[in-house]
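To whoever is on call:

I kicked off a structure prediction for a single chain this morning and the downstream step that reads the tokens threw a length-mismatch warning. I double-checked the sequence; it's 313 residues and nothing unusual in it as far as I can see. Pasting both halves so you can look.
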Amino acid sequence: MKRLYPLLVASMFVAGAANADFSLDSRYTDNDHDLIADIPTDKSKLLDPSTLIFAYTPVEDPAVYADVWSEFLEHMEGVTGKKVRFFPVQSNAAQIEAMRAGRLHIAGFNTGSNPLAVACSGYRPFTMMAAEDGSFGYEMEIITYPTSGINSPKDLKGSKLAFTSQTSNSGFKAPSAILKADFDLIPERDFEPLFSGKHDNSILGVANKDYPAAAVANSVLNRMIDRDVVKASQVTSIYKSETFPTTSYGVAHNLTPELQEKIKEAFFSYKWEGSKLKEEFSKEGQFLPITFKQHWNVIRKIDDANGVSYNCR
């Protein structure tokens, strides 16, 4: 898939800005006030493609996840009667742009990029992975390497901290809010912020001592340790947050209602036992129904605390 038209403006850290009222881009409507784009009532605006494009949130090695999702996408083909193709996105912005342009139909957006995807690309999230007992989520951790001399967040003063991207909850928004509120530490003023682009990059950077510290999602960290990409002994955690919702999965708003229901059916009817998804996401065992309005309330509050605005261009 070729690169799309100019980059959407991602969430920015702007002191004094406010985002108390979440709203969608003007191209979308929300008549039922559920905070996500309505499905168009004009049939001429609906899409029913013969091939569906699916993208998982950006990762260090997309080829690994193309294989991880292969069985699930075959299952979706059986349920929908459509061809389904995996699209390896390189950034959150590219993923949002693709859905906004109508070239991405089904996606897993990471926690922090959900509000921007919903507001700017008409993304309709409806599920996320959960354990068999219904528990879900992950924590943001600030990690360093054992000999860095950084033993607590206050030791970040005068040092460097790697974030992932400005759209990431655990990779930027949550740590920015927490460091400011709890430790009076502000990027640029108290420490030098760096941006790695992905959680995988941040984790590898700390493990290889390229970054003195990084804010990451521990779900990604744990999977990388489980796959022996990094060793647990290479990193140490100096802060762990409350639990946040994890990657959501959803569809473009303008797919036909019938197709959207078939896609939902594919997620909720998938059998995890013995699957590649279960092997990779070992703590999960089902797709749990969610709503953006309820489950992403805490994330919108973090955005508000950070002075985040959603600008769609």
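Update from on-call: the warning came from a stale cache, not from the record. Cleared it. Sanity check on the structure: Confidence is low (pLDDT under 50) at residues 1-20.
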